Amino acid sequence: MNSSNFSFEGKVITTEKFSKELDYPIQDIIYLENKQSFIVLYDMDSNIRKWGQFPNIICLNSKGEKIWTVELPTTDTGDSYFRMQFKNGKLIADSWCSFSCEVDVNTGKIKEAIFVK
User: Is-above-0.90 flag for pTM?
Assistant: First the structure.
């Protein structure tokens, strides 16, 4: 499988091996070929709360099973990620509370968080 063999629309991701409706609308997906996994960024506005957080990045394996849910850099209400990118072999996610985070692609845990505001 390669990165050109998947698509998404609304809440649904479709690959050669599975089609799955997820919990929230998808904003972006990064396919990690070496891990055969999909890093999914949910639309941050799809779960607006008056309290709590929205850890809106998940990882799916090649069968569509959830491997992990991302960690957030703060405990602030409303924190979530608005952008992610895979750059120089690192998953970088930017949070609403102004942190740029390197996320471990194996666990979803934050390796490093830099305040950028």
Answer: yes
